Amino acid sequence: MNFTTNFDIVRQALEDFTTEIYSPNNKVIDQIPLDQLIQKLDLSSWIKEGGLEGQVLKDFLSAFLSYQTRLHHSGYLGHQCAAPHYAAALGGFINNVTNNVPSIYEMGPSSVALEVFLVNWMLEKVGWKPTPLTVHSRMSEENYGGGVLVNGGSIANLTALIMARTQVAPEVWQEGNPDGLSILLPSESHYSLTKAAGILGIGKKAIHFVEVDKRGAVIPDSLPGIFKKVQEKGHFPIALVANACNTPVGIYDPLDEIADFCQEQKLWLHVDGAHGASALLSETHGHKLKGVERADSLVWDAHKLLQVPSLCAALLVKNHKHLDQAMPVGDNASYLFHDKEQPGVDTLHRTIETTKPGLGERLFFVLGAIGEGGMAGFIDRQYQLTLEVYHYLQNLPDFECPAQPESNILCFQYTGATMDSLFLRKKLLETGEFYLTTTLFKGARYLRLVFMSPNTEFGHIVNLVTSIREIATKV
């Protein structure tokens, strides 16, 4: 067997996988116990004997893909993972074959070119000055933005807080954390931020949660009082984090008002826009990030609303020097850092990761296929559908929502019977028709819809309502 033959087998299997979602009998999710699945796939035999090619490869893929969750399915309303555009797979495939690593220019000039171009494109969307393409020194004193693509928003959030800490405690890499470092967070922030506090050695006890309204958005007028209490405890915040949008219900914080406070206190403002920063591409919804250009750093995940497979996240900064000088390079990495002819740029010093795949390939090929307009149209469609579903559910006597959505995330409860949301979700997953999640918000558990698939339409939610009511009648 050769590459072409096996590639065609894989291509056909994936084509079938992404088109079978339109079959009325096809499930979005089909879970069986792990031990049974490993046995069904006969993984032990393949590891021992090899030979996974040709017809046996075809048979294996048929079994393997039959148990994969179908993110393109109309019933996929689960986690904030994209139903990827096929073009992104082409970009990923190209990088998987070439294995060029865009951390250093000489290991992948074209991959680096894509990443630098895309980071600049994102910087311009935020309202920050892009990096001049003729600048190669990371110690440049020019004022312009900067950024890097990393494997996920968690790494990006951690790196942003490393930058913020370095501004407050520049000797931290030699001396360790000084006493009293803390972080200001909205209570509805992503858990990666509290995890980052632990990794940084600041600790969860030094996280101070700022006051939010009934929708989960930061109340700017409460910030001076919270800041004063933090100072009275002998703590000094390295950063205030704002959400654009928050994870539970998809609400945007008032960035402009928060920026006023941070500017007054000379406090680093980091915006976790992992999910909602993509609205910057939309003429209809871009206003929800008003004031983002006043932040110091921003996380923007392409693997959420930009139809890119996991993972591909951008960490962007208003001032490149904060990123370029945040993390010292290793003393024993002389094979990487030395005087050399440099026709491009190295980004290794900007990341926690030393080796990473060509993440720019995934995003660029989608944008290259559908353009900015196509991407904006997709975002507008998902946001509008979510709003329509909200009004539909609110007008039903046996459903209620805790907040009007500002993105493609919508939470709701079924009130027609006394039923736990976790129980309802379990029953829905058992049918395989719908995949949705739940979340705690303001002390109550809600069913949670995230409209990621371009194949989900309003009628599918009507069917979901019918399914929920049928489950209720059987309890």
Automatic annotation (TrEMBL):
- This chain's protein is named Diaminobutyrate decarboxylase
Tell me yes or no: is NAD among this UniProt entry's keywords. no
Q: Which cofactor does it need?
A: pyridoxal 5'-phosphate
SUPFAM superfamilies, A to Z? PLP-dependent transferases
The entry's keywords: Decarboxylase, Lyase, Pyridoxal phosphate
What family classification does the UniProt entry report for this protein? Belongs to the group II decarboxylase family.
Give the superkingdom in one word: Bacteria
Regions that span the bilayer: none
The record's listing under Gene3D superfamilies reads: 3.90.1150.170, Type I PLP-dependent aspartate aminotransferase-like (Major domain) (3.40.640.10)
